[in-house]
Amino acid sequence: xxxxxxxxxxxxxxxxxxxxxxxxxxxxxxxxxxxxxxxxxxxxxxxxxxxxxxxxxxxxxxxxxxxxxxxxxxxxxxxxxxxxxxxxxxxxxxxxxxxxxxxxxxxxxxxxxxxxxxxxxxxxxxxxxxxxxxxxxxxxxxxxxxxxxxxxxxxxxxxxxxxxxxxxxxxxxxxxxxxxxxxxxxxxxxxxxxxxxxxxxxxxxxxxxxxxxxxxxxxxxxxxxxxxxxxxxxxxxxxxxxxxxxxxxxxxxxxxxxxxxxxxxxxxxxxxxxxxxxxxxxxxxxxxxxxxxxxxxxxxxxxxxxxxxxxxxxxxxxxxxxxxxxxxxxxxxxxxxxxxxxxxxxxxxxxxxxxxxxxxxxxxxxxxxxxxxxxxxxxxxxxxxxxxxxxxxxxxxxxxxxx
Length: 403
Prior knowledge:
- The structure is a single chain.
- Helix content is 33%, strand content 18%.
- The strands form 3 sheets. The protein has a 6-stranded mixed beta sheet, with helices on both faces. Strands 8-7-9-10 form a 4-stranded parallel beta sheet, with helices on both faces. It has a 4-stranded parallel beta sheet with strand order 12-11-13-14.
- α10 runs parallel beside α12 (378-385).
- It contains 13 helices and 14 strands.
- The radius of gyration is 24 Å and the shape is globular.
- The chain has 403 residues and is α/β, with parallel strands linked by helices.
């Protein structure tokens, strides 16, 4: 992936919901200008969420998601509705498509209740306005609009409304730019082991590097065993303003970097960027309460091929058991397969979430909080297990009281 590409997790997720035959897929095709979804008069043509990353003016990079009809029936229909509900967890903007000749019904009102419960900004789109002889939009607020996907009327106005509601509700959290200044020297420690993707660096490393360059600071990259030699060359006036390491090398890097140089990890920066950091710091102390037979969920947002020394399925479980001395059970989840019922788990250790958008990470955090299950992330957990959490959080003074 090029540094200039926008990953899915950084795009605005716009999801289209509604009943069967309301014209969701026709509207998606009209908005995107592409035949993204199959269109048919047969009810229930869309059987699974259809997702496409694209550039959409005036919003820029987005992910468009077309979902099955929420009123689908039968055993398969119920499974499709479950998939539709899962899409809600990552939706930055929800577009509710209503057949204007039918109006809002029980299913649509149920969806609106879910949007409100999950605090998802939404727009009600009354489709098929060409069938109403110019009748006005039934909605009575600025987030309702009448359109005709068939004739293309109101489509540009709808895109403007989506862009407005998206911009108005977007929360920007810095990655590293607010921690550094122009011309600062930043050292990035990037191990290249068997788990590293061939020919490229992983997404959090790409994003941090780009943020450093955008700030006007200077970045120097090294592998963990090269770090002592690099720091020797950089001694004196060229002393780094910050060292950022891969969490797996935390312990070694902490020994090599003097205490007067701030140190943190890519995973900790990602936890803040996704809105999880404070909760992850509070949750990590649950490690002290683990007992024999307790189950810990280790959750990853990606579905990469597992290596024999994988960080989530091998290294963290190993370090956790060594630290606690307890017979702890480990369960894992990956991709979008995050459990609804978290009651079996004594705590959750989540990855940095680089492949998930902020809304989905915050949804998972809320689920954990609602069920009183402590949640932390890889970087925080590893720093805690290695005894260097306080140092790794020194760049965030407001967290000092939690450490």
